[in-house]
Amino acid sequence: MFSKCIKEAFKLPHRSCTVLFPWGIVECDQTECGHKTAFYHGNMDAAQRSFVQRQWSKDEVNIICATVAFGMGINKPDVRFVIHHSLPKSIEGYHQECGRAGRDGQRASCVLYYSYSDYIRVKHMIIQGQAEQSPWTAGCGRNNMRNSDGILEKNTENLLRMVSYSENDVDCRRLLQLLHFGEKFDSGNCGNTCDNCSKIKTLVEKDVTESAKQLVELVKLTGQHFSSSHILEVYRGSLSQFVKRHRHESLSLHGAGKHLAKGEASRILRHLVIEDFLAEDVKKSDIYGSVSSVLKVNESKAYNLRSGEQRIVLRFPSSVKVSKQGKTEVTSAKGSLMSGKLSPPQSGSPAQPQPEVDLNLSAKLFSALRLLRTVLLKEAGDGVMAYHIFGNATLQHLSKRVPRSKEELLEINGIGKAKVSKYGDRLLETIESTIREHSKADRNSSGSNESSDSVKRRRDASKAPNGNLEEDDEFTKSTGRSKKRTATRQNKVSGAHNSMEPVSCNRILDDDLDFNDSYHDTEANAEK
């Protein structure tokens, strides 16, 4: 399961720092991926947790599979992905956990994998957790018991709001989050960074009051002993063995929802649960230990619906969703909700890379600077994190601007006099050596191209009836000289490379800059 999450998150060509929130402790330990990964949860002792935190902060691992116990105080600004493998318990918790991505102002993505069955599991956890606390409050009077019931009710309400957020495949994710906190937001400013805004779709408003009434009535007709999936089967006219076993094919409302697509009927039923017209009674099987639920009718709310005092109007996407590439989109049973955190759109034309800086040189320089930072980090010892020396945004600016003096270093965001005094010489030495290597590689490449042209000219000349032997002799001499020069250069480059290579240096795996990405040129101090 988790491998799919990571593979989808790592479709980009570069590796990135990722926090993945699974169900709990067991799934933290079971996660296996082909990346440098560590797990973190509340059952680990203090020494283990501290060790994982140091690995994470020092870039020795680039993926943390963690429960919410993962320390909020850890300042890791270059997290590119936050992945929730299952449903958070509240929008507040989800918002807080997503906030760990993109603190450096660069592009980041938050992915939530959601299935309605997750709601049943989380609700069972909430009820079970409350039940485990009840013995402690049983002898403390009625007031404490009422408080316990109030906490359970509040936690359930928070969970339902999270389900509503996840079920909504129409409205802007950013808008939904900020509305929850009482803030206003114009979805036009989203910039198509969430899954809903990025879809090209036509929305249709439908009054589904009659269907809602029928579903509530069907729950009553079946004795309020069946799950939502069974109610949907009966409503849409299924003749499965389970339906026949309970003789539900003979009910008056059997097949009443045939005209609705399965997704529409499901959306209406879940809306009834979210808005408390129906309630999910969650139970755990004594035989298999699995969690199941049955639907119950909330009579006080259902009365308003049946009497016509309340109407239900929902917005649905058109039956065919078309992606930006013009291909029909198919949503799996357990879909993912993505929202990207991007730097604010810049007015005018988008920023372009500085023309005087070779992108290949910039990429090589960034790798060399990260390598230098790793060496400096090892020299600094425990207690010093990578971002204490230089943040990724600072290294990014260095690789773009290519400063050649200490005065130019001071012009880089994130570098002051203290850092120039402490690290300036080694920075400039790394920059100069990278430039030299890059220049030599360019010359070798151009020499190789010239030789290829000479070979082509010689081949053409040999095909001519009167080939110029004098030119052939000159070509042989020049080729011999070229081979000697190339061998000499390669030896020099090899020697220089070996002399600069640090001893026992772990290479960083989270190459989180894509130099062909337009976001590479966003200023480091941009707001998220």
Automatic annotation (TrEMBL):
One GO BP annotation of this record: DNA replication
One annotated Gene Ontology cellular component of this protein: cytoplasm
Catalytic activity: Couples ATP hydrolysis with the unwinding of duplex DNA by translocating in the 3'-5' direction
Coiled coil: none
Region of interest (Disordered), residue spans: 325-356, 435-505
Domain of life according to the entry: Eukaryota
Residue stretches making up the HRDC domain: 359-441
Domain Helicase C-terminal: 1-149
Signal sequence range: none
One Pfam family it belongs to: RecQ_Zn_bind
GO molecular function: 3'-5' DNA helicase activity; four-way junction helicase activity; nucleic acid binding; nucleotide binding
InterPro entries: Helicase_C-like (IPR001650), HRDC-like_sf (IPR010997), HRDC_dom (IPR002121), HRDC_dom_sf (IPR044876), P-loop_NTPase (IPR027417), RecQ_Zn-bd (IPR032284), RQC_domain (IPR018982), WH-like_DNA-bd_sf (IPR036388)
Enzyme Commission number, as recorded: 5.6.2.4
First-tier enzyme category under EC: isomerase
Similarity annotation: Belongs to the helicase family. RecQ subfamily.
Protein name per its UniProtKB record: DNA 3'-5' helicase
Source organism of this protein record: Salix brachista
